Amino acid sequence: MSTTSTTDDTAGGPGIPRAFVSDPSIRVHGDTLADGRELIYFDDADTTLGTERKADARALDPRPATASMRQDPLTGEWVSIAAARQNRVFLPPAELDPLAPASATNPSEIPDIYDVAVFENRSPSFGPLLEDDNAPRGGDDLTRIELGRTRTSVGRCEVVCFSPASTGSFGSLNRSRARTVIEAWAQRTDALSHKPGIAQVFPFENRGVEIGVTLHHPHGQIYSYPYVTPRTTRLLESIESYGPTLFADILEREQNDERVILRGEHWTAYVPFAARWPIEVHMLPHRHVPDFAGTTLEERDELAGLYLRLLRGIDALYDTPTPYIAAWHQAPVNVGRDDIRLMLQITSPRRAADKLKYLAGSEAAMGAWIGDVPPEQSAQRLRDAVAKADQENPV
């Protein structure tokens, strides 16, 4: 077991000591792609791969200019204008999968075979400060509201490849591989939280063309923002109004309710009391943990199994795979860390086998949601689906 403790004063607030415990059975080794982007391999605890990896032999153009962001003066929110994303690959055939290990006919983003690989996005919404001097100037700079304000979208966007296979999702992984991905989330959260200018780190998975994915390859992403996101800002306001025990009280209430789906020694998954989506599940750790970097090895081990069971249950609701967004909400780097707890939020617009919920006027324009399915009914269906998946495809 290895432990590192560091302090960072560069991300918009006072430095906070953090201790990250890595799993020594999961090997981590880094490399650099042809245009200078970082590539990191995470090898399963039971890997059959060696330690050597081929170098990236491509001749790549220099990295494009980092996107810029504009402030909406009506809300104070920042909108990243990332025009380079228009050119990204859209649902390519398997033989041209850009996340598959490179071959003679497919010079992909990953030069060699891997278990789990993480690399900097080639067309990021938030990226490095290259030659631009219009960087954000701290938290006060980004919260001040003026007209016509722009800043460079400084941050980091990483792609997390769950497997070298060209199809699948997190739920299709075996338990060992799921554990490796969770280790990657923890390690990258720790590393990204210590980069200058990063205010919040967000791991997530988009699954299904209905959600808008552009690649069938099993993968997720990690966004590192230069500001605290609007959703988290609203959460901080709720904690200020309710008190610092908000998450602990929610967990205690939910654990005693009929909406619980799965409960382990360290984690509980449930349909929230005021669920917005036809399928919506939250999962919380039983103790206060602000982000993945703060989890123990035992918590990560249990999560690998519970998370697989939950996702396979969601897929067992219907005869075809369920589209979803799996969002891991984490505390910002330098604010709210004693109050905001790491939380999974899975949402799906699927309200029937052949029907999707679309955000109409009330939700899209006013943020006033109307739920289609009673949360208690949804929880019962999910419990039944998890039981079915446990029997047909045990973890």
Contiguous helical run count:
7
Across the major sheet, the strand order is 3-4-7-9-11-10-15-16-14-13-12
Helix content: 10-25%
The helix-strand sequence is EEEEEEEHEEHEEHHEEEHEEEEHH
Low-confidence sequence ranges = 1-16
Head-to-tail CA distance between termini: 26 Å
The number of distinct structural domains comes to 2
Report the CATH C-level class of the largest domain.
Alpha Beta
Mind telling me the CATH superfamily name of the largest domain?
Answer: HIT-like
Number of strands: 18
Taken from the alpha-carbon principal axes, the silhouette is globular
Averaging pLDDT over every residue, what do you get? 93
Largest sheet: 11 strands, antiparallel
Rounded radius of gyration (Å) = 21 Å
Can you tell me the CATH architecture of the largest domain?
2-Layer Sandwich
Question: What is the SS-derived class?
Answer: alpha+beta
Instruction: Tell me the CATH topology of the largest domain.
Output: HIT family, subunit A
Tell me the fraction of residues in β-strands, as a range: 15-25%
